[in-house]
TrEMBL record:
GO terms for cellular component: membrane; periplasmic space. Signal peptide: none annotated. SUPFAM superfamilies: HlyD-like secretion proteins. The keyword Membrane applies. The keyword Transmembrane helix applies. Belongs to the membrane fusion protein (MFP) (TC 8.A.1) family. This is HlyD family secretion protein. Gene3D superfamilies: 2.40.30.170, 2.40.420.20, 2.40.50.100, Helix hairpin bin. It is found in: Periplasm. One of its GO terms (molecular function) is transmembrane transporter activity. The chain crosses the membrane at residues 14-34.
Length: 411
């Protein structure tokens, strides 16, 4: 009987302990229920804020130049490959030019002949014509003297009428010879017809030589401007003709980024806004850009507007038609009050609101928003720095009790 009594006392003690533990557990659960669930919160902070519009696009120079030949011929040499950097005047494609060179030689010979004719006129014919004038004038002077003597003799009766008439005819003939010699001399002078014909012959031969040289020059396709070759559609041995694009050149100059911006962001854009871009192939290498132009219309199919940005100092890795990502800075606010965008309810309406933790309760607060920046949004009214707000994803309603989950330790 003595052993049975202590055993009953032990069982009683265990029942008492179990009841105490259950009571503590119930009380703890009740307190936690009363205080609400443990929830993670976001904190309203104050810092400098930059609003950006993010878009993707491609690299493009202001224009491209399609190059082709101006005559039909067989390609004998192609001096460039896609990616080659060329300077203005560099030879890109050469055609067989044997016949063209022969034509140029003939034109050069024709010019030499025309110049020789002009030189002969100036060095031989002109002096001879001038000498002829002098001789004719001397003959005329002699004829006039003879006529004067004959008239004196005729007046004295020493010669007859026939002799006088013959002397007069001789004087007239001498005068005609002077006029003819003068005309011949005048044609050799700069204003004369022979000189004009000889000069025109030289000019015509020079034009023919220039044309022949130009056609020979057409056998070599040269770069009109400096740039980068981005396309080639010609090989040695091809027979090419005018009108066919053989090469495409991207001229050196201002590199531009062409991006499509959602039309909803059109009101945020303005010329000369700064931007930061990176090529998808080199995502870590970011470079500066400036908004240069905004297309005047919106694409009806995509609902986007095309904008172009100048790249003042493009990196060496940048290539034509590369895909790029661009962050355009559309607004900047120093010391802005910011709330995570994921904590704002009805952000696109006239009355956005948040759930702010106040005295252990989730309280609905209407806020007035300012700039939007993706992960964060500026708050103009309704919150203060340091406020704890609940994310939209939290399964909590306004007025519910909540407990703020302490931040995770980072040490």
């Amino acid at each position: 009987m003595a052993d049975a009594q202590p055993a009953a006392t032990g069982r009683h003690r265990w029942w008492w302990l179990a009841g105490l533990v259950a009571t503590v557990l119930v009380v703890t659960l009740a307190v936690r229920w009363w205080r609400g669930p443990l929830v993670a919160t976001d904190t309203v902070v104050r810092r400098d804020f930059v609003q950006t519009v993010v878009a993707s696009g491609r690299v493009e120079t202001p224009h491209r130049v399609d190059l082709g030949v101006q005559l039909t011929g067989t390609v004998t040499r192609v001096a460039v490959t896609p990616g080659s950097l060329v300077q203005a005047g560099d030879a890109l494609v050469e055609l067989r030019a044997v016949e063209l060179q022969a034509t140029e030689t003939q034109a050069a010979a024709a010019l030499t002949q025309a110049q020789a004719r002009l030189r002969q006129l100036l060095e031989v014919q002109a002096p001879v014509a001038a000498q002829g004038v002098h001789e004719a004038q001397a003959g005329l002077a002699a004829a006039d003297a003879a006529l004067r003597r004959q008239r004196t003799l005729f007046a004295r009766g020493f010669v007859g009428q026939a002799a006088l008439d013959e002397t007069i005819r001789a004087a007239d003939t001498a005068g005609a010879q002077v006029r003819t010699a003068q005309l011949q001399r005048d044609t050799t002078r700069p204003a004369g017809s022979d000189h004009a014909l000889a000069t025109a012959g030289v000019a015509s031969a020079q034009a023919g030589l220039h044309a022949a040289r130009a056609r020979t020059a057409y056998s070599v396709l040269r770069a009109p401007v400096a740039g980068t070759l981005i396309g080639r559609d010609v090989e040695v041995g091809d027979v090419v003709q005018p009108g066919k694009v053989l090469l495409t050149l991207s001229p050196a100059g201002t590199t531009q980024l062409v991006v499509a911006i959602d039309e909803r962001n059109l009101g945020l854009l303005a010329l000369h806004q700064p931007a930061v871009a990176s090529a998808d192939a080199y995502a870590q290498k970011r470079f500066a850009a400036v908004l240069a132009s905004i297309y005047p219309s919106v694409n009806a199919q995509t609902g986007a507007v095309e904008v172009r940005l100048d790249v003042p100092a493009p990196p060496a890795t940048l290539r034509q038609d590369m895909t790029v990502s661009v962050d355009i800075e559309v607004a900047r606010r120093p010391k802005a009050l910011l709330v995570p965008t994921g904590a704002v309810h009805d952000a696109g309406t006239a009355t956005p609101w948040v759930l702010r933790v106040e005295a252990g309760h989730a309280v609905r607060r209407v806020v007035r928003l300012g700039l939007h920046g993706g992960a964060v949004t500026e708050v103009l009214d309704g919150l203060q720095e340091g406020d704890a707000v609940l994310p939209v994803s939290a399964a909590t309603t306004a007025g519910a009790r909540v407990r703020v989950q302490p931040p995770a330790r980072t040490d």
